[in-house]
Write a structure and sequence with these properties.
It is a single chain. Strand 1 and strand 2 form a beta hairpin. With 174 residues, the protein is of the alpha+beta class. It folds into 2 domains: 44 residues, no CATH class; 107 residues, Sandwich (Jelly Rolls). Strands 1-2-3-9-4-7 form a 6-stranded antiparallel β-sheet, with no helix packed on it. A 3-stranded antiparallel β-sheet has the order 6-5-8, with no helix packed on it.
Length: 174
Amino acid sequence: MRLSLRDLAERSGVSAPMLSQVERGETSPTLSVAARIAGGLDLSLSQLLRLDEGGAVTVVRASERAAGGARARGHSYEVLTPPLPGQRAEVSLHLLKPGSLTAGVDDPPMHEPGARETAVVLEGALRLHCDGQMHDLEEGDSVTFDSDLPHRFENPGAAPTRFLAVVTAGLRRS
């Protein structure tokens, strides 16, 4: 999530000047203000204060992965990274059946402004439709693009395609 101070002020009910002072370390918020800031960021207070972290290493077991996709359309994925506060990247493993797409032709982008995505083809063939252009990829190929643009992946081959996708949040200026 990439918010301006004004956006966070609206979402949290904390003034932009106060948020700016907290950000610069000029003042410490009360617990009440910190809780409102956390709410504006869609975090719990313990996540904001990083009280819920169990250490420097987080293991995500295969059985614990968050799953998604449109299985009826032949697309499934699993998120390989844990949902940690302040996480700036998400890694997911995708499976596309032959002829399947990750999104519809007119679906809007699902990533925040400034996000970037890198995909690595593990098995099969993959076609990226991005901002009106097509890019064909083969096993071992990778591609990086601005993922806040309209895009979708397609399996143009006769065999299933597996690929990794890494989405990094807000690293590019929009």
